[in-house]
Amino acid sequence: MKVVCPPNFVREALEQAGPVREGLSKMLRIASELSFQELLKHQGVHLEKLTGKMDPVTKKHLYSLRVTRAPRVIALVDGDALVLLSVVADHDKAYR
Q1: What is the pLDDT of residue 95?
Q2: Under a CB-based contact definition with an 8 Å cutoff, are residues 47 and 39 in contact?
Q3: Could you give the count of Cα atoms lying within 13 Å of 68 in the half-sphere of its Cβ?
Q4: Could you tell me how far CA 36 lies from the centroid of its own chain?
Q5: Which domain covers residue 58, as residue numbers?
Q6: Per DSSP, what are the bridge partners of residue 84?
Q7: How far is 38 from 88, CA to CA, in rounded Å?
Q8: What is the count of structural domains for the chain?
Q9: pTM surpassing 0.70?
Q10: Cα–chain-centroid distance for residue 86?
Q11: So what's the pLDDT on residue 89?
């Protein structure tokens, strides 16, 4: 799947602690090597559609991807691209 990392996401990712940056690197590699359907089934990434959550600009559904034990990436799917929007340090906050 094509992975898009807008400048704001890159800045946010670079501000993360070492273990989170390593997790982001691994998650990016996996996401770029698999199709959307494969990502949905991948046990480590845990790509999940956030129920009732939509991007206010694009009106597309938001998804969560596991980075490490707690941090998640919030993303949206735009055609064949996974657009990474933000890094959320707390698992529970990602689902609110």
Answers
A1: 58
A2: yes
A3: 14
A4: 12
A5: 2-89
A6: 75
A7: 23
A8: 1
A9: yes
A10: 7
A11: 84
Return the CATH number at 48.
3.30.2310.20
Identify whether 52 is part of a domain: yes
Question: Does 23 fall in a domain?
Answer: yes
Q: Find out whether 48 and 42 touch, Cβ atoms under 8 Å.
A: no
Q: Is 61 among the domain residues? A: yes
pLDDT band at 91 (very low <50, low <70, confident <90, very high): low
**Non-local CB neighbours of 20 within 8 Å, separated by 6+ positions:** 67, 68, 71, 87, 89
- Distance (Å, whole) CA 35 – CA 21: 23
**Which 8-state DSSP code applies to residue 79?**
T
Encoding tokens for residue 71? 């941090």
Count CB neighbours of 36 within 10 A. Answer: 14
Distance CA 52, CA 71 (A): 20
Is residue 37, in this structure, part of any structural domain at all? yes
pLDDT, tens digit, 9 for 90 and up, residues 19-75: 999 999 999 999 999 999 999 999 999 999 999 999 999 999 999 999 998 899 999
